[in-house]
Design goal:
The protein has about 250 residues and is an alpha/beta fold. It has two domains: about 120 residues, Nucleotidyltransferase, domain 5 (2-Layer Sandwich), CATH 3.30.420.40; about 110 residues, Nucleotidyltransferase, domain 5 (2-Layer Sandwich), CATH 3.30.420. The chain has eight helices and 13 strands. Strands 1, 2, 3, 4, 5 and 6 form a six-stranded mixed β-sheet that branches. It has a five-stranded mixed β-sheet with strand order 9-8-7-12-13. Helix 1 packs across helix 3 and helix 4 crosses helix 8. It is globular, with a radius of gyration of 17 Å. The structure holds beta-D-glucopyranose. The site of beta-D-glucopyranose has 15 residues, from helix 4.
Length: about 250
């Protein structure tokens, strides 16, 4: 339930950058330009928290004493990070929500980054008003997933890690895999075809929404896929994580 009419700071911690902006939750838009700082090379909880603190300080005048939402590329179960694929392994087992709240001196709500994107698309984007099962996938450094049933998020699904042909799916079909293996859109689409057709066999969703930076170029690969399920690009693009994190923070304030 979005209650905040004043801006809430949403921060998105990613493999290459940490970015944040105050979000107007009546429209899902940024009140000020994003601030982006590269993710520390050694991306420990403490190093990332120092960067997050800089972003919070920069927007202190806009966000009052309201809570901050942070999207993280890992599941977050009751504040704790049980596994970490793409940041430093020392996150595992840490109650990161508590750690951030203490470091920032304000209530902090942590949410998985794909779940944040899912919340953003449900409230303001491609999944708005959609009934039935929507699966949002983010194609980036990894593959993140959000499962949304009749507008309600089922958090912490890790369906980017399903095993296909004995391999972790994200190592084959993420946009990072496309980049490091220099795959053409056509060759990458073959891998996406396998991924999404496996997903539809297991879940029978009503809609796939495809997010992540590469979704800007959706016309280069979505038309190459042959699926039963409609598949559409996400609409919030690179602001999805921050907007969703702010929605999560507002929901708990
Ligand atoms: C992580 C997920 C995350 C996704 C996208 C995966 O490797 O396990 O939690 O949502 O990457 O960042």
């Amino acid at each position: 339930m979005i209650s905040a009419t004043q801006p809430i700071l949403g921060i998105d911690i990613g493999g290459s950058g940490i970015k944040g902006a105050p979000i107007d939750l009546t429209t899902g838009t940024l009140v000020k330009d994003n601030m982006r700082i590269p993710t520390p090379k050694k991306s420990t909880p403490k190093a990332c928290a120092d960067v997050v603190a800089q972003i919070v300080d920069a927007f202190a005048d806009d966000i009052g004493d309201r809570p901050v939402g942070i999207a993280l590329p890992a599941p977050v179960v009751h504040g704790i990070v049980p596994m970490m694929a793409n940041l430093h392994s020392s996150w595992v087992g840490v109650n990161a929500e508590e750690m951030f709240s203490e470091r920032l001196g304000r209530q902090t709500v942590l949410v998985n980054d794909a779940d944040a994107a899912g919340l953003a698309e449900v409230h303001f984007g491609a999944a708005k008003g959609y009934s039935g099962l929507v699966i949002l996938t983010t194609l980036g450094t990894g593959i993140g997933t959000a499962l949304i049933m009749d507008g309600t998020l089922v958090p912490n699904t890790e369906l980017g890690h399903i095993e296909i042909d004995g391999l972790d799916a994200e190592t084959r079909a993420s946009s990072y895999a496309k980049t490091v293996e220099h795959l053409s859109y056509k060759r990458w689409a073959k891998r996406l075809q396998k991924y999404y057709s496996t997903m539809e066999r297991y879940f029978w969703p009503d809609l796939f929404v495809v997010g992540g930076g590469v979704s800007k170029s959706h016309e280069k690969f979505l038309p190459l896929l042959d699926l039963r399920t409609p598949i559409v690009p996400a609409q919030l693009l690179n602001r999805a994580g921050a907007v969703g994190a702010a929605i999560a923070a507002a929901g708990r304030s």
